[in-house]
Structures are given as C-alpha cells and as structure tokens.
Specification:
The complex is a heterotrimer of chains A (285), B (334) and C (333).
Chain A lengths: L2 H10 L1 H23 L31 H37 L1 H16 L2 H12 L5 H9 L4 H15 L2 H8 L4 H37 L10 H10 L8 H29 L1 H5 L3
Chain B lengths: L7 E14 L2 E14 L3 E6 L5 H8 L7 E10 L2 E2 L5 H7 L4 E4 L13 H10 L7 H14 L16 H13 L5 E5 L7 H18 L2 E5 L3 H7 L2 E6 L2 E7 H6 L4 H8 L48 E4 L9 E3 L2 H4 L4
Parallel strand pairs in B: 3-8, 3-9, 6-7, 7-8
Antiparallel strand pairs in B: 1-2, 1-4, 4-5, 9-10, 10-12, 11-12
Helix pairs in contact in B: 5-6
Chain C lengths: L2 H28 L4 H12 L4 H15 L5 H13 L14 H34 L6 H14 L3 H15 L19 H38 L2 H8 L4 H39 L4 H10 L3 H29 L8
Helix pairs in contact in C: 1-4, 1-12, 2-3, 5-8, 5-10, 5-12, 6-8, 7-8, 7-10, 8-10, 9-10, 10-11, 10-12, 11-12
Classes of the chains: A mainly alpha (285), B alpha/beta (334), C mainly alpha (333).
The structure holds adenosine-5'-triphosphate and magnesium ion (MG).
C-alpha cells in the first residue's frame, strides 16, 4: 500500500485505522516485550514478593513473588489467544448455523433460531460457571478458550442468518439458481463474498465477547489457576486486596491492557460497521 | 371544473433539481415550467425516472440531500414557495399546497391511530382546535372521503389499502389547500378500487375548488381524469396541452411513440415503453435528450436543446394552449 | 391482547427456564466423573470438624439424585424439584437450604440491577435519540465519545476503578457491602438511606458502562427510522420538527430498542454479577462467588437456575408490555 492510499484509508475510516493500531500495539506487546523481559519471572516465587516498582522490577512484584511486568508480557498473549480461539470457533459455528438456518429455512431454521434466542437470554457467564465447575480439573488456557467458544456462536448465527435471508431473495441469487448452480456453489460463490464485511464484524465482536467472558470467568476464580492471564492477574490482585493497599502496579497494568483491547476492538467493529452499513452512518456525524 | 377564466393557481418557472452523487450530478429535473390553473386537473406522465416525483417533492420543498433545488420559482398566490424560509414553508405545507405521496398507504405512522394523524396535521397549522371540536372535524373529513368516522380510532394496519389511501386524501384536504399534488395515488390498488378512490378525490377537489397535479403512468386513467396533460422526458417537460388533443394529435415524437405504444385502441392501461433506453441523467446527450431514440430526428436535434414553445395558442385561455419542446415545431433546422 | 400471543410468550418463559435447568442437570453428568459426587466423597474422606455434616449432605445428595436410578427418572425428579425451587442443601452452610441462601440475596440483586438497568436504558435511549437529532446541542456529541469508550469497558473493571477513585482515594463512598456492617436490616428510613448510599457506586458502574451501549443502539435505530416513509410524510404535512422527532421517529425507534432490552438481559446480568463480586454486595453474585470458592455445588446450580428464572420473568414482563407499545403485535407472528 502506498502512502497516498494509506492517507485515504485514514481519512475515510478513522475508527477502523485507530482501532487496528490499538489492537496491533496490544498484540505486539507480548512478543516484543519478551525480547526485553525474562518471562520466566512470571512464575510464582521467581522473585521476592511484594516489591514496589524498582529498576529491576519495573512494575514491582506480587504477593506470590511474580514480576508483574513479566506477568503482563506473558499474560497478554494468553488472554488474546483465548479471545482469538473462541472467536474463530464461535464464528465458525455461527457461520455454519447461520447459513443453514437462513438458506434452508423451514424447521431447521426454527430450531436453530430458537436455540440461539433461548441461549442468548441465559447469562453466558452462568452457563460457563456451570460448565467450568463441572469440568472440575485444573483448567488450561485452551480449555478456557473452548469453554468460552461454546457460547460465542449465538450472535454470529443471528446476524449471518438474517443477512443470508435477505440475500437469498436478492436477484443475483435467483439468477444463479435458475442457471443451475447447486446450493453449496451458490453459498460459496455468491453469498460468502457479500457477507465478508459482516463476517469480519462478527469475528471482532465474537473476540471481544470471548475476552469479556474469559476474564469474567477468571474473576470468579474459575480460570487457569497456574497461568498468568490478565483476568487471573486481576483475580489475584483482588484476592490479595491490592486495591485497598494502594498496590496500583498490581491491578492497574492488566486493567489498562484489557481496556486497550476492548477500546481497540470496539473501534474496529465501529469502522467495519460503517463499511457494512454505510447508510446508517451518513445521516449524522 | 369551474368555468372561470384561466386564473393561475401555481406558476412554476425553470425548476431544476439535481442529485449530487459520488458519480456526479444527476439532473433529475432540468428546466421545468408550467402554469397550473385554478381548479384544474393537470396530469404529469413519463417513464420511470423521468423526474415526476422529484418535481412534486421540489414543489413541496422536500428534496433531501444529496438532492438540491438548483433554481426555479414556484408562485402560489402571493407565496413564492422556493424562497420561503424553512418555517414559512412548513406553515405553507398542506395549508396551501398538499401532497398525497407515492405510496401514502405505507406512509402512515404504524403506532398512531388514524384520527390522531389527521388531527396532528391540523394542529401543526392552526392554533387551538382541540377536544370535541377536533373530533368533529376529523369525523367530517373521514366522511368526506367516504370513510366511517369510527375509522379515526383504528390503527393503519387495521385498514385496507384503499382505506389508507382515503385517509391520505382526508389529510391532504384537511386544511383546504389551493393545490393538491397526488403522486400515483392509486397505482398499488386494483382497478375497481382505483376508480372509486379517484372519483372521491375529484369530488373532494370539486368541493374545495382546489387544483390537482396528478402524477402517474396510466394514460387511460389520465385520459379519463385530467383536463390537461404534461409529458416528461429525462427531467424535462416535452409536451403540455389539453388531454384530448394531446392524445389524438401528439406534437412531440416521444408523445407520439408513447401513445402508439398503448396496448389498446381506447388507450387504456399503462404504456409498455418504447424502443431504446432513457438517457443517462448524469451525462445527458448533447442537444435534445430524446434524439438518440427519436425516429424523426433532424440535424439540429443533436446540438441544440429545444425549449418548450407554444405551438397552438389561444389568446384568452391557457386551457387550450398547446406547447412542445421539439425542433420539428420550432422550425430550427441547422 | 390476543390470547395466542400471551400463550406463546408464556411458553417461551417455560422454555427458557427448562433450558437453563436442563443445562444444569446434564452438564455435570457429561464430565467423566460426577464432580458433585467426587467433591462430596473427597470432603468426606478428609473428614474433620464437619464429618457428620458431610455425611448428612451425602445422604441428601444420594437421596435426591438417586444415581442408581435411570437417567430419565433422575431428570424428571430434578425438574420436579426445580419447579418447587428446591435445590438441595448448602455444603458450606449446612444445613441451610440453598434456596434460602439465594432467596435472601435475590432482592439485593434485583433491586440494584433493575434500578441501574432502567436508569441506563432510559438515559442511553434518550441520549441516542438526541444524538440522531440534527437540532440537538453540540455538547451532546462531545459527551458521546467518552460514554462510548466507557461502554467498551467491562462492568466490573469500571467498578474497580470507581471503588478506587470514589471509595478508597476520595473516601466519598463505602468500599463495598450493601449496608454498614454492624447495623441490622430494618424497615427504617435510616437503613434505607444507608442501603442507597452503599448502592450508588455499584449502580454507577453498571449505569456508566452500559449507557453507551443503549445510546449507540438507539442512535442506529433513529437513523434507520428517520429514513422511513412515515417520518417523511409527517414532515411533508408541515408538522413541527419536534413533533416529527418525538411522536414519529422516537416513538417507533423505541420498539426495537425494547426488544434488545429483552435480549440484553443475559449480558447485563452477567456483568452485574461480577460487579457484586467487586463490591462484596450481598446479592446473588457474591453468593455465587463464595459458593465457587468453597465448591458449594448446590448453591452454584441453584443460583444459575434462580437467575435464569428471574431473567425469564423479566423477559415475560417485557413481552407483555410490548403490545402496548406496538399495536401491530396482535397480527404479527
Ligand atoms: N435520493 C436520490 N439520490 C439520487 N438520485 C435520485 C434520488 N431520487 C431520485 N433520483 C434520480 O432522479 C431521477 C428522477 O427520479 P424520480 O423519482 O423523480 O422519477 P419518477 O419520474 O417519479 O419515476 P417513477 O415513475 O418510477 O416514480 C431518477 O433518475 C432517479 O434515479
Ligand atoms: Mg415517482
């Protein structure tokens, strides 16, 4: 991409560009940070406990003797990974179900839509609590991601279903059907390309919802106890009442990173929404 | 038709409306001029996209961005509609010039009772009438359009298409305007209902002594209903004259093709279209916009735009004047 | 209101509750070992002070789950118990019944959540509508950016920041709890004020972090609605722009907004449960948190069913109110 088109991109889609920049910074934080910080220090007992920030430990250490900067460097990618996996799996399931429901209609549609609607009413967090307590083993980061993914498909299912439904009636699909294309071919060649902006937007919100759910679960103490994810860090910080002891270097850094993740994703999804529904955004702003 | 002299109710001069899109300006209405006589019914026909609705909306000053009224005058009594302030125009709407929009049956607020929607139109323009008085007035209006006064208590979804059309009519006459613009008021209705709704419209018009601009596709309906007919092509008025003469002896080649393409001898029904495509309004051809499709085009047609000129005149009545925008009638050759 | 509409809504209510209860029943059984049984046996083998208590718990557990019975029989029995709000006994607070513990906490949660959510919904809806109105004052547009940013932050993180800022640093508000420790709940004005005082910061964190969401969605609805024919027609009729805005555009945009309120309940409750944990607010969120810490399964599952029941009820109420807003509902499926 040359400089002129980059400038045009910034001008036309300021939210999208800003959001992507924020997300990029957070994503890069782990890999880049590990070049400077020894992530082994994120293990329990690898440093003296309860140190205030010094040159050796820029963000101090926690009550269990973890270097908090190392925890951040090691934990940020873990949290992003949970969000990413859950987003991919959730969107994958959502896309398939949404397509099936929207394209074939009938009783299949009724069942899928009904299930999505009912499950959406049930607070995802509680569902996850039951699931996580039922597993009753030490949860790993990947299990965590799958647990969260089990609830990440409803919203993509709904959006994609309604998009497919409206496209199914559109002229070009009818033409394709008359010209003898099979269902799968129509889906792959005609529907999928038109859905890309919606899929991208759904993916971003699925990742956001997954990160939200995962740190929620972790805050309740149901996360991977042995991993330094951002949510677990906040859990331990709360557990050891760091808030009331003015140990800001414990609770503030994970919080700042989490907020950056959400603000970045939020900006990206707003930018994508402008691309997907240009009409909505013309009238004001 | 009240038989007075040709008193002018609304005089439109050189109206131009463009839609400024990313690809350029769409010249939806380009220099339309006509006089609407008091109490008369003027039809406006033309292919889809020829600018009929845009003309109507411009007269109501309801053109939305990216559209813009580029120039023109519209004199209604002592009001020049296109130069009124926004607030003055708001007050003039429906009080002096009202509109039955294309698709009025889908334009009622679904969550408000019909009576309330008639009443709020009145309240927006008049101080005071409320309670019992207003209820009586709404009932009168509903009876005027042959609806049961109890209809006031109903929601739009409880009414048939024809009934909703009548509600639109009742709203449009509620403040006794001098001019009513009806944009395809019956195109979504079946033929029998269509006829009855039109009869009601014209009866009410007669009682009010209002002038009507009737926009539509249906030449047969026009032939039966209107006094004079205007034919639009690519944003321009290409012919204007008394409906009978216009249909029997069209002056403009476009009108001629239009009339000859009508399905049956008594010229009922909608026109089916004529060979060729309407020109791009983004980048109209030089000269007469119709020349690429015109079987009678002559040299001058490709270079010079013909203006709407009087072909058959009558000194004391604009009612029988005939005008056309065609070089065959202006005598230009080179 | 047409009867079949009502019947359908009530059916939806039961489906939601049934689905919640069923998840609760089958999930532990899908794990290779039944975690409840395992946990109980584990506790039993450690013995200690509560050994006899634990035996009693195991006894009730065996009795109510009857694991030797076929699955469908267990299931039917379980549904019957749920219908009577009988979730078994608490392990941590034996012999308290799980349902008693939950019912004691529920009013706190419902009070805090209902008020905070309604405030957020009303404020956000109004703000979103005004954002879509060309004539609204410019400062609103500046206000909207920070609110939208706040809506991107999880409820309970905002709660943490607020506790730190308003409670710990400025000492304006208590650090947590539902009322001052040492006082006894009583129906006096002083106690009511104390409860209100304690609920302000948790309430504020729910309101602040959700108001932007409502504003954004209402703004979207308004923009859509403003292109509708009935709005254009209202303007064509010469109605004043304020009337067009409030009686036509806003009135119609409220309909989908109300629908999303019903849909967002689950999300709102999840967030609020965590807010309670941060504030040690004496609601079901805190009960759930403690139960998880002590692996008090019956209480965990009881909370889940009770919260789902409450949400299903709210959804039902919204569904019943909805036809008052939308007269067409009688004819829609
Ligand atoms: N909002 C808009 N933006 C851009 N172009 C528009 C807009 N509205 C109308 N146009 C263009 O203006 C031209 C005239 O449209 P108009 O609606 O006036 O046609 P019409 O004669 O009423 O057609 P119909 O018989 O189909 O109702 C068309 O070419 C149309 O594409
Ligand atoms: Mg039209």
């Amino acid at each position: 991409m040359n400089r002129a088109s980059l400038a045009a991109m910034v001008r036309n889609h300021p939210q999208l560009v800003a959001g992507l920049a924020v997300v990029f910074v957070v994503v890069a934080f782990g890999p880049v940070g590990s070049l400077f910080v020894d992530t082994d220090l994120s293990r329990v007992g690898s440093a003296p406990a309860n140190l205030t920030p010094t040159v050796d430990h820029l963000l101090g250490t926690d009550a269990a003797g973890r270097d908090l900067l190392a925890v951040m460097v090691a934990g940020t990618p873990l949290t992003l990974w949970v969000g990413f996996v859950a987003g991919v799996v959730g969107l994958g399931i959502g896309t398939i179900l949404g397509f099936v429901a929207g394209y074939f209609g009938g009783w299949i549609d009724t069942v899928i839509r009904g299930a999505a609607d009912v499950l959406m009413t049930i607070p995802g967090l509680l569902f996850l609590v039951v699931l996580a307590t039922s597993l009753h083993t030490t949860v790993t980061v990947n299990m965590m991601a799958l647990v969260v993914a089990s609830l990440a498909w409803m919203i993509p299912t709904r959006t994609i279903r309604s998009q497919v439904l409206s496209m199914r009636e559109a002229g070009y699909v009818q033409v394709a059907r008359l010209s003898g294309l099979g269902d799968l071919e129509i889906i792959a060649r005609e529907l999928l390309p038109n859905l890309l902006p919606y899929l991208a937007a759904s993916f971003v919100s699925a990742v956001g919802a997954a990160v939200l759910a995962s740190i929620g679960l972790e805050a309740l103490g149901l996360g991977p106890q042995n991993e330094p994810t951002l949510g677990m860090t906040i859990y331990w910080a709360l557990y050891y009442t760091s808030l009331l002891r003015s140990v800001w270097w414990w609770w503030a850094p994970p919080m700042v990173i989490i907020v950056l993740i959400f603000v970045g994703l939020f900006l990206v999804s707003m930018g994508l929404d402008r691309i997907a529904n240009p009409r909505m955004w013309k009238a004001t702003s | 038709m009240t038989g007075n002299r040709s008193r002018v109710a609304l005089s439109v001069e050189d109206l131009r409306v463009h839609y400024h899109t990313e690809r350029g300006a769409i010249r939806a209405v380009e220099g339309v001029s006509f006089d609407l006589l008091a109490g008369e019914r003027l039809g406006l026909v033309g292919e889809s996209g020829s600018g009929k609705t845009t003309t109507a909306m411009a007269l109501m000053r309801l053109i939305r961005p990216p559209g813009r009224i580029e120039s023109g005058r519209a004199q209604l009594g002592d009001l020049e509609l296109l130069s009124l302030s926004d607030e003055q125009m708001r007050q003039a709407r429906f009080a002096h010039i009202s509109l039955i929009p294309q698709g009025v049956m889908n334009s009622l607020n679904p969550v408000m009772r019909v009576g309330a929607q008639i009443a709020d139109t009145i309240q927006a323009h008049e101080q005071g009438p409320g309670g019992e008085k207003m209820r009586a007035r709404v009932s009168d209006l509903l009876s005027l359009v042959e609806l049961d006064p109890d209809t006031a208590q109903m929601y739009p979804h409880e009414l048939s298409g024809g009934m909703k059309q009548r509600v639109g009519m009742a709203i449009s006459v509620a403040l006794r305007p001098q001019v009513i613009i009806a944009d395809e008021p019956t195109s979504a209705l079946d033929v029998v209902v269509q006829k009855r709704v039109m009869d009601t419209l014209f009866r009410v018009q007669g009682e009010l002594d209002a002038a009507v601009i009737l926009v539509g596709h249906d030449m047969g309906l026009m032939a039966q209903c209107v006094d004079r007919l205007g034919v639009m092509y690519a944003g321009r008025l290409v012919e204007l004259g008394p409906v009978q003469q216009l249909l029997e002896q069209p002056l403009h080649p476009y009108t001629r093709l239009l009339v000859s393409s009508l399905p049956s001898l008594d010229r009922r029904g909608e026109f089916r279209g004529i060979p060729g495509l309407p020109p791009s309004l983004l980048d109209p051809p030089a000269g007469c916009p119709f020349h690429p499709r015109c079987p009678e085009a002559i040299d001058g047609c490709t270079t010079k735009i013909p203006g709407l000129t009087t072909v058959v005149a009558d000194d004391d009545s604009a009612r029988i004047e005939r005008r056309a925008a065609c070089h065959l009638h202006t005598g230009v050759t080179s | 209101m047409p009867a079949d509409y009502l019947v359908r809504r009530i059916a939806v209510f039961f489906i939601i509750v049934w689905a919640g209860a069923t998840i609760n029943f089958f999930m532990p059984r899908m794990a290779p070992v039944n975690p409840i049984r395992e946990r109980l046996l584990q506790a039993l083998s450690f013995g200690g002070a509560g050994k006899t208590d634990m035996e009693a718990v195991v006894a009730t557990y065996e009795a109510r789950f009857g694991l030797d019975q076929p699955l469908w029989k267990q299931y039917v029995r379980y549904l019957g118990d749920v219908a009577q709000l009988d979730f078994g006994v608490s392990i941590a607070y034996f012999p308290s019944k799980a349902s008693d513990i939950i019912l004691r906490a529920l009013p706190w949660t419902l009070g805090l959540l209902t008020v905070a959510t309604l405030i957020a919904f009303a404020l956000g809806t109004l703000l979103g509508a005004l954002l879509a109105w060309p004539k609204s004052p410019a400062f609103l547009h500046y206000l909207s950016a920070p609110l939208l940013a706040l809506s991107a932050i999880p409820y309970y993180l905002l709660g943490l920041v607020l506790v730190f800022a308003l409670g710990f640093t400025l000492r304006l508000f208590p650090l947590g709890g539902g009322f001052t420790l040492g006082t006894l709940p009583s129906p006096t004005f002083a106690f009511a004020m104390d409860v209100l005082y304690h609920s302000i910061v948790p309430g504020l964190s729910i309101v602040l972090s959700s108001v932007g969401f409502w504003a954004l969605s209402m703004r979207g609805m308004m923009v859509t609605v403003q292109g509708e024919d009935y709005v254009n027609y209202a303007e064509a009729r010469g109605l004043k722009s304020r009337d067009v805005f409030f009686r036509y555009a806003l009135r119609n945009a409220l309909l989908p907004q109300t629908t999303s309120l019903a849909l967002a309940m689950g999300y709102v409750v999840s967030g609020a449960v965590l807010v309670e944990v941060v504030f040690a607010y004496p609601g079901v969120g805190t009960v759930l948190y403690r139960a998880i810490q002590t692996f008090d399964y019956f209480v965990i599952y009881g909370v889940v069913v009770m919260v789902i029941l409450a949400i299903a009820l709210v959804t039902l109420v919204l569904d019943i109110v909805y036809p008052l807003l939308d007269p067409r509902i009688a004819y829609k499926r």
